[in-house]
Amino acid sequence: MKFVKRISLFFIIPMGMYTFGFYSHMKLQEEFYPGKYREESVKQKSALVQEQPQVIPTSFEEEQVINADTQYVIEEVDLKKETSVETKWKVPEKYIGMNRDRFVREMELYQQSPSLADQELGFVSVEVVSFSRDKVRIRKSYIFRELSTSFYLVNEKNFVVVYCDDLKTIYMGTNISIDTLPDGLKQEVIQRKYIASEEELYNFLESYSS
């Protein structure tokens, strides 16, 4: 038994000294080179991260602009009757190449100064309902003037002009000089002669137009 104990001690004591020496060496390394093993660990982790493919998200989207193939839709709304009519047109060349912001500004300018035809129809406003490369939709609102059934003959610059019964809207101009009319009719036109129907109007035009 004593022999066995001696053999055990012979192996245990050197192993203990070796373990103690290794532990002491590691502590000294950490004391003289602080962070060395942490840096190596970080480098290993960094290398693993770099090996993974990087995915860079992109938020770029091609700008939507009007082109020759863009569908141009106009919705005309009658505010008085609360009805609407939709029509499809070829996009006007002057709008080609415009993005949404520029097109909206163009419509705002149009609202400030609409065409004469729209003014005569009773134009109120215009707005951009939707905008994309494929389709542009605008809404034009009107208070449509009802067709006149009676008229006034008015002297303007020595010629007869036909007004609607509101005496504001010109129904048509004529080439009838006031001086070519009989004296009685001439005085009536000067004082704004009332015409009760379209038939009476066209009888007058046929009689005095050259």
Describe the overall structure.
The chain has 3 domains: 2-38; 71-142, no CATH class; 151-208, no CATH class. The longest helix is centred in the N-terminal third of the chain and has 31 residues, at 2-32. It is built from 6 helices and 8 strands. Helices cover 40% and strands 27% of the residues. The radius of gyration is 47 Å and the shape is elongated. With 210 residues, it is α+β, with helices and mostly antiparallel strands. The protein has helices at residues 2-32, 36-51, 100-112, 116-121, 183-190, 198-208, and strands at 71-78, 83-90, 123-131, 135-142, 151-156, 159-164, 170-177, 193-195.
Keywords:
about 210 residues, alpha+beta, four-stranded mixed beta sheet, four-stranded antiparallel beta sheet, 6 helices, 8 strands, about 40% helix, about 25% strand, elongated, disordered N terminus
Report the strand count: 8
Uncertain segments: 1-9
- DSSP helical segment count: 6
Strand order of the largest sheet: 2-1-4-3
Number of domains: 3
Summarize the structure.
The chain is an alpha+beta fold and 210 residues long. The chain is 40% helix and 27% strand.
Secondary structure elements and their pairing?
Blueprint: H1 2-32, H2 36-51, E1 71-78, E2 83-90, H3 100-112, H4 116-121, E3 123-131, E4 135-142, E5 151-156, E6 159-164, E7 170-177, H5 183-190, E8 193-195, H6 198-208
Parallel strand pairs: 1-4
Antiparallel strand pairs: 1-2, 3-4, 5-6, 5-8, 6-7
